[in-house]
Amino acid sequence: MTVTDNGVNVQALLDAREALKGAPEAARFTWRATSKWDRGVHCTTTIENFYGLGAEQSHKAKSEFAADHPEVFAAEDNGITPIEYLLVGLASCLTAGVASVAQNRGIQLRSVTAVVEGNHDIRGILGDPDVRNGYNDIKVTFDIDADASKEDIEAIVAQSQKRSAVFDALTNPTDVTVEVA
Amino acid sequence: MGDSVTTVVVGAGHAGLAASHFLRRRGIDHVVLERGQVANSWRTERWDSLRLLTPNWLSRLPGLDYDGDDPDGYMTMDEVVAFIERFAAGAPVRTGVNVTSVRRTGEGFAVGDLRCRSVVIATGACNVPVVPDFGDLGVPQVTPFGYRNPDRLPDGGVLVVGASATGVQIAAELRRAGRQVVLSVGEHTRMPRRHRGRDVLWWMHESGLWAQRYDEVEDLDRARRLPSPQLAGGADVDLNTLTEAGVELVGRLATVRDGWALFSGGLRNVCSLADLKANRMLAGFDEWAGLTGRVVLEPTRVPAKPRLRLDLGSGEIGTIVWATGFRPDHSWLQVPVLDEKGRLRHDGGVTEVPGLYALGLPVLRRRRSTFLHGIEDDARYVVDHLVRTLSGTPGRPESEAGSTLGWNGHGSGDIVSPR
């Protein structure tokens, strides 16, 4: 019998779930990003530290993300559009979920590709009060090659959505506070 | 009161009366305390049209089988009350006694002023409707305890929140009465009333799945939390039949902001999950029966553009029905056996406090624990354990049979325990 190895340490996750049952405080994480305006609609966001397990934590390395707008928006296109970062988040989160659920179910993945498309009517951000600012809808299409039936693969993808932080954040309202320090 | 008895059973529903049945057989001096009348919840906390989810031939209690002339029918609430009243004959029930405290004493327990050596909690799993708090919504609201029939609701459209057994039944009934109905759908358990011509509960029963014991269930925590299935006594109710009838489906009610109800954009996925699980359950039945050729349910039809928000102040919605589940009430229990989420900690009905037992909770000892016919094995075991503890030889009674017919557990994590 071959051992399923998608590179996900499912046992550690299951152990963490057990451990956190007795320590809900440790489960409270705060993720942080710091963004600095460069010029025009270009800014650079840095992510390095976060809080969790009752203490300050750091990523192995600092990451920088440039955001700008494309030339058709009369911008310099120094980076992707902020709303595209939502697609990055959604695709990565669902894909991570697919790998984890597959690992937990003993299904070996060979390849996973997700195409994410968000439909956006930009009249909203240009001031049309009848059009919303954000996405009208988002479609994710997974192409998965794995040792499993179509039904099992569909079940993995469904379970991945069920447990996805970003899917939840995009499909449910979140209370957002913006202040000037 | 101020007197004493060996055992107090709290609650004279079918579970408490089943405990009494076995306590009488074992000659244990006991009383059954009941806040109202026998079968109180069935009398006072159910809507008019509700019928039992289990067919009559399956509706049996220890020593009392259904003996009417409609074995394939589903009992009305009046019939359920009458059935339980028959079962109560000979039980030492004290009605109109509201238990407000159970404390430990040196010798056992004090139930109010009544002293005893052991207590069986049989107060039910559905004492309090769970209603999310979104503040003042400016719209009349009702829980399933207050809902009786469509005529008693204020005029106008109805937002039914929750698509388990209660929500789908009430949505269907309101729509039949001509109401505009919006149904907010979160995670749910799809279950066709019939599979290959037989009641789906026949399959649950005959395959042995329903008899699966709590210590054989893969994810017990989850099995105990599963939403009740989209079933109705006798009628076909699922999201597709509701859509055909003109009910509008929206996602889970996420919050209410500035007078607008905001619904989750995850409706499609909760429907996919429910479809996959239901099909897996049916495949499991077929596998058990050695049948080939899959019967696959019609996929749930999700609106192309489900509404994400609804203005509660527009007048479109005249009433909100909260079909968002129930929880037991153990607030009167002054014995530290509740977990961090307020749920009773027990091992198949046996709490860690010697002499304190529970019956009638979801998947207490078997998947069928909360159904009428599920109480017999549970009550027999719990009373056996209780008698051993009283006699000073505590320990597990003789082992019970596990799943009777070798259900292999395929997809069993998805099967439901109803209310």
TrEMBL record, chain A:
InterPro entries: KH_dom-like_a/b, OsmC/Ohr_fam, OsmC/Ohr_hydroprdx_reductase, OsmC/Ohrsf
Cited Gene3D superfamilies: 3.30.300.20
Superkingdom classification of source: Bacteria
Protein name: Uncharacterized OsmC-related protein
Organism from which the protein derives: Actinoplanes philippinensis
Automatic annotation (TrEMBL), chain B:
Keywords: Oxidoreductase
MF annotations from Gene Ontology: flavin adenine dinucleotide binding; monooxygenase activity
Annotated segments matching region Disordered: 392-419
Oxidoreductase among keywords: yes
Highest taxon, organism lineage: Bacteria
The protein, known as: Putative flavoprotein involved in K+ transport
